Every structure is written in C-alpha cells, then in structure tokens.
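Exercise 7.
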Amino acid sequence: MNNKIFKDMAKGINMGNFAKKRSFVENALDGISRDGKLGQVWGKVEKMRRFLWNKNVPFYQKVLPLAALLYLVTPIDLVPDFTPIAGYLDDIAVLLWTYS
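Solution. The predicted structure, written as tokens, is:
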C-alpha cells in the first residue's frame, strides 16, 4: 500500500467535493471486474459504498472509506490494476485496513 497516495486522497476530501468524488467512485465501481481476489472482498466494497450514502453517518467518518474506494478505482498506485494477480493486492490491503 502506498501510504502517501492514500493519505493525499483522504486529505483531498472535503465537504465541498465529497458528492463529486462519491459520484466518481459510484460510476467507476460499475466498471470494475469482480474476479479473483477482488471478488473475495467485494461484499466489503459494497458495504463501504452504502456507508457513504448513509445520512446518519457523520461526514468525518466517511472520509477514509471514500479515500479507500478512490484508491481502488484510480490507477495511480504503485502496482497498476491491470497487472495480473498483484494489481489489486495493494488496493485490497487498503480496503481491508479501512474496513477493519
């Protein structure tokens, strides 16, 4: 996991751009393959996705889940997502850490 990229994503989320970033994630998740290792944690991805829409959850609690999902859907991490097997491993690490 590239901590700097993840931290920068989280720092870049604020109340003014939250809805736009959430919409970006929503659209991007629809195009992601659920095969392999990512498929094994897809239930957690869906729970985090629903968490972002929950009106009872304060904004500050939504920042890390949104950053984790942004990390998943943007190809700027160290291991490109299109790389077989290893491509999503760092993304999955971020997702599982955030989910826990």
